[in-house]
Amino acid sequence: MKSWTEWxxxxxxxxxxxxxxxxxxxxxxxxxxxxELYRAAYQVKLAEVGNQxxxxxLIEISNYCTKNCYYCGIRRDNxxxxxxxxxxxxxxxxxxxxxxFGYGSVVLQSGERSDPEFVDYIEQAVRELKELxxxxxxxxxxxxxxxxxTYRRWFAAGAHRYLLRIESSTPELYRALHPADHDYxxxxxxxxxxxxxxxxxxxxxxxxxxxxxxxxxxxxxxxFRELDIDMIGMGPYLPHSETPLGRAVHDFDPERxxxxxxxxxxxxxxxxxxxNIAATTALQTLAPDGRERGLLAGANVIMPNVxxxxxxxxxxLYDHKPGLDExxxxxxxxxxxxxxxxxxxxxxxxxxDSPHFARRRGGSRA
Length: 366
Ligand code: SAH
Ligand code: SF4
Fold this sequence. Notes:
Elements: H1 4-13, H2 19-26, H3 31-48, E1 52-55, E2 57-62, H4 88-100, E3 105-110, H5 116-132, E4 138-142, H6 148-157, E5 161-163, H7 171-177, H8 184-197, E6 200-203, E7 206-207, H9 214-227, E8 231-232, E9 235-236, H10 244-248, H11 254-272, E10 276-277, H12 281-286, H13 290-296, E11 301-302, H14 328-341, E12 345-346, H15 355-362
Parallel strand pairs: 1-11, 1-12, 2-3, 3-4, 4-5, 5-6, 6-8, 7-9, 8-10
Helix pairs in contact: 1-3, 2-9, 3-11, 4-5, 5-6, 6-8, 9-11
């Protein structure tokens, strides 16, 4: 059997890690081996997508949700949450911040609703943001499962990327995390619908979930490959005290969650190579420099919150979410410094699509 270092060198050079290889990465524990893994992933990132961090301004537009995912703090049955929906002028103001910071692109995220008022509201928001920037601002949506007609309408209005995490690609684990009327097959079908509507599609999972094994995570990495997805947004699971799953977790280990999150980023970079991978807020929740460590393990996207601080306490998907009282300008300032300190650069105000998307379109991917 090849030595770990020899094998890793071949992967960096382009050999595709198989299931056993992915498992090997995810099971690493020795600090020296982990450092080697992150370095290898960083090398592939530099070669495939460079060291320019893609910044998206995140706007949490509404926390009304008709679903009841067992892990999420804004689930329908959490009566302790004060519900809000930003007005169109408020969305415009947040997007203007992002635009002025040179972010080039925004993500509108919300709880899930599919009533006609909500579909109109998103369509109108997308139209207005396009107008405001004379078509230049890139718009990503993350508003849950919808019909093909709705996705088509939102795409026609001007959104061009969509994030819909599969949460877990293993149907049994998915079922354990959701009530019976939340359907894995339907969520999976939505990813196909999004692609057909024309979107660049991002998906992802939660990492370190109760009941989740290394094999489940390997399934997830293989799922991303099979679907030939353009972007990955995944992060460690974090308990929320007002949720069924959060109440059942008694052995939460932040260090383990963080390491597993970083290993997944590195394994995804080494396996998928030219996709966009986000260093998510969940990493920052586990360590103040969690997102920076994500970038050094292979991620290349960060989504700073550009919404007003007023509504942030109402959008707590998990406990201890950071940045509740730091406004968009302050986070921009701090982030810029910390990125430069680790040798990363800020991408200029552009959409920052993944090279994978361009290659997939051009059919040049091997
Ligand atoms: N309603 C939309 C988008 C908002 S939720 C949707 O569900 O797709 C965005 C993501 O937050 C979810 O996909 C989920 O992966 C993540 N999330 C929710 N609760 C979480 C928790 N407790 N820990 C970590 N991530 C969580
Ligand atoms: Fe709603 Fe999304 Fe939270 Fe599920 S994860 S309860 S769909 S906001």
